[in-house]
Specification:
Layout (H helix, E strand, L loop, with lengths): L1 H15 L1 H6 L2 H14 L4 H19 L3 H14 L3
C-alpha cells in the first residue's frame, strides 16, 4: 500500500507540476523527493544540484512556506528526470 501511495504521489507531482506544488504539504513532497532520490542514479553535478534544492526546500518548509518549498522540491525532481 505504501508503494502504491508513493507511486500515486509521484505521478501527481509529475502530471500536475505547479498545481500539485500549491496544494501539497511540503513534508509529503519531501518524502516523495527523498524516495525518488534514493532510486535515482545521478552524476556528481546533478547530485549537488538536487541536494542544494532539497536544502533550500527544507528551509522554506521549516518556515511554513509550503508553496516555495514544494517549488524547490519540484525543481529537484526535474533535475532527476521525474
Amino acid at each position: 500500500m505504501r508503494k502504491f501511495a508513493l507511486a500515486v504521489a509521484l505521478g501527481l507531482l509529475a502530471a500536475s507540476g505547479p498545481v500539485f506544488a500549491a496544494t501539497a504539504p511540503c513534508e509529503e513532497t519531501l518524502k516523495a523527493l527523498r524516495a525518488a532520490e534514493a532510486a535515482a542514479k545521478l552524476n556528481d553535478a546533478d547530485k549537488n544540484k538536487v541536494s542544494e534544492l532539497e536544502t533550500k526546500g527544507i528551509e522554506r518548509c521549516n518556515a511554513d512556506d509550503d508553496k516555495r518549498a514544494d517549488d524547490f522540491f519540484a525543481q529537484a525532481m526535474k533535475v532527476m528526470g521525474k
